[in-house]
Amino acid sequence: VSRGDKPAAFTTEHCKVGMLVCADMFDPPTIKAVVDLGAELVFLPVAAMGTHPHVKGHPLTEKLATENGVYVVKVGNVSSNARGGRSAFITPWGIEQEATDTVKDSVMTIDFDMQKLREFRKSLKR
Predict the structure, then answer these.
(1) Where do runs of H (alpha helix) occur along the chain?
(2) Rounded to an integer, what distance in angstroms lies between the CA atom of residue 121 and that of residue 124?
(3) Tag placement on the chain: N or C end, fewer CB within 10 Å?
């Protein structure tokens, strides 16, 4: 993955993966463009710095997952967690897992059910 000015998605053996970066979350046309590329899983690195408002949960990320029928891997920077940048796995059905430590690095893993997601996506109006 490298810097660019266009939406990006790539195919893996399991699914199509899209990339958004931090403030892309605030730009519906960018989100739509990534989903339109076929993304089923979206990587979303974020950096919630000191100016980020305090947020409970992941409201924008949950909206992204639910409205677009995607899984989201939100990757926050260490120490941003207290301000809303906590790493998490988000599905159209809610937060599946969230980083619990706000200071230390950690590794999280999850098995996403791609068949369940594909069935859900069929129910979305496109």
Answers:
(1) 28-36, 59-68, 114-123
(2) 5
(3) C
CA dist 6 and 34 (Å) reads 9
Residue with tokens 């893996």: 12
Domain locations along the chain: 8-123
30 C-beta neighbours (distance < 10 Å), count: 16
d(C-alpha 121, C-alpha 68), whole Å: 8
Q: Look up tokens 């599946």; give the residue.
A: 96
According to the CATH classification, is domain 8-123 in 3.60.110.10?
yes
Model-wide pTM > 0.85: yes
Q: Which residue has the tokens 């990534």?
A: 34
The predicted-structure confidence for 44-94, as pLDDT tens digits, reads as follows: 998 776 665 565 667 889 999 999 999 999 988 776 555 556 789 999 999
Nearest alpha carbon to residue 14 among 44, 39, 34: 39
Measure the N-to-C terminal CA separation of the chain; round to a whole number of Å.
28
Helix (H) or strand (E) holding 71: strand 71-76
